């Protein structure tokens, strides 16, 4: 069977550029979640590796976040301070350390253990799905996510208004991602429809 050419696939690296006016989206800092637009600069493969790395996103499948949301709510409910932890791997380590002070018979111990295991299982499932679907074609109607190559964070739409355009929602980089990281590929015009491959070139 002949492989379909010029089709976007899970695992491909993309640049989000405006072909009409020039400019592209980039994130230049691993510490912050800010994105910016390089305006009126047509993207070129001759740019420095630093610039290309800042503007590159890898296509990944839609991840699940139910267990992450549940453990976030649980932590807020029992008031465990985790604000200084920059990612959930560090937060889980602190929760496991905090759990050691509880009795295994304590209901709080059992509930915390349940949430930690559910989160870890969800993370493992997401990574397994990412490996399983690597190389699969992306079609219109699919939901994907974009992971920033430089920071490893996810392109994510928030529920707050953007500072530049108050009619738009803010878009930034999220450490773990959430439902705001889900991007549905919508066809435009009559030439494309749901189920058609997303092509380039």
Automatic annotation (TrEMBL):
Q: Which domain of life does the protein's organism represent? A: Eukaryota
Instruction: List, alphabetically, the InterPro entries matched.
Output: Ins145_P3_rcpt, MIR_dom_sf, MIR_motif, Ryanodine_IP3_receptor
Domain MIR residues, every copy: 135-188
The record's annotation in PROSITE patterns points to:
MIR
Q: Which Pfam families match?
A: Ins145_P3_rec (PF08709)
**Biological processes per GO annotation:** calcium ion transport
**By its UniProt entry, which Gene3D superfamilies does this protein fall under?**
2.80.10.50
Question: Which keywords describe this protein according to UniProt?
Answer: Repeat
Q: Which PANTHER family does its entry note?
A: INOSITOL 1,4,5-TRISPHOSPHATE RECEPTOR-LIKE PROTEIN A, RYANODINE RECEPTOR AND IP3 RECEPTOR
Q: What's the protein here called?
A: MIR domain-containing protein
């Amino acid at each position: 069977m002949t492989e379909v050419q010029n089709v976007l696939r899970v695992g491909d690296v993309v640049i989000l550029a405006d072909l009409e006016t020039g400019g592209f989206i980039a994130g230049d800092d691993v510490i912050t979640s800010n994105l910016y637009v390089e305006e009126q600069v047509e993207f070129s493969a001759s740019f420095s590796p630093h610039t290309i790395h800042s503007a590159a996103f890898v296509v990944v499948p839609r991840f699940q976040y139910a267990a992450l949301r549940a453990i976030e709510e649980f932590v807020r409910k029992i008031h465990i301070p985790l604000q200084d932890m920059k990612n959930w791997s560090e937060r889980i380590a602190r929760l496991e350390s905090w759990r050691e002070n509880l009795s295994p018979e304590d209901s709080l111990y059992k509930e915390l253990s349940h949430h930690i295991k559910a989160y870890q299982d969800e993370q493992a499932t997401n990574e397994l799905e990412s490996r399983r679907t690597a190389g699969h074609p992306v079609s219109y109607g699919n939901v994907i996510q974009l992971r920033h190559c430089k920071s490893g964070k996810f392109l994510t739409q928030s529920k707050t208004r953007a500072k530049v355009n108050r009619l738009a929602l803010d878009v930034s980089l999220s450490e773990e991602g959430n439902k705001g990281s889900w991007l549905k590929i919508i066809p435009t015009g009559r030439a494309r429809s749901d189920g058609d491959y997303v092509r380039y070139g």
